[in-house]
Amino acid sequence: MTEAVLVITTAGKESEAQKIAQELVKRRLAACVNIVPRIQSVYRWEAKVETAEEYLLLIKTTKTHTAEVQAAIQELHSYDLPEFVVIEMKGDSAEYLKWIEDSVG
To answer: Which secondary structure element, helix H or strand E, spans residue 96, and what is its range?
Structure first.
């Protein structure tokens, strides 16, 4: 069974999204990070409904590295409370999932 997971976070600026992605891959905490530009987010923050343009980061890593990924995101991120969602990856491409595992750590 694979250990691969997808971590989702957002960033308010493209430069910040790039910095987080580059550092996660450089530190071997992620095999790959996709940056989806200019999404619209609607959320409640400090008792108000807010709308913001953000960048979505799709981070491919392993379950054993999620705490390190979360710590790196906290370190590199400008948000007080950065999004951190972890989804277990399953699929028919055993080679791709193995590549993720081989690329981190």
So the answer is: helix 94-103
Q: Is the pTM of this model over 0.90?
A: yes
The Cα-based distances of 94 to 7, 34, 64, 85, 103 in angstroms read 19, 20, 18, 23, 14
Q: How far is CA 61 from CA 12, 34, 101, 103, in A?
A: 22, 12, 7, 8
Q: Across the strands, what pairs with 61? A: 5
Q: Going residue by residue through the chain, which has 105 residues, state the pLDDT in tens, using 9 for 90 and above.
A: 569 999 999 999 999 999 999 999 999 999 999 999 999 999 999 999 999 999 999 999 999 999 999 999 999 999 999 999 999 998 778 899 999 999 998
Domains of the chain: 4-103 (3.30.70.120)
Do 34 and 18 form a contact (C-beta atoms < 8 A)?
no
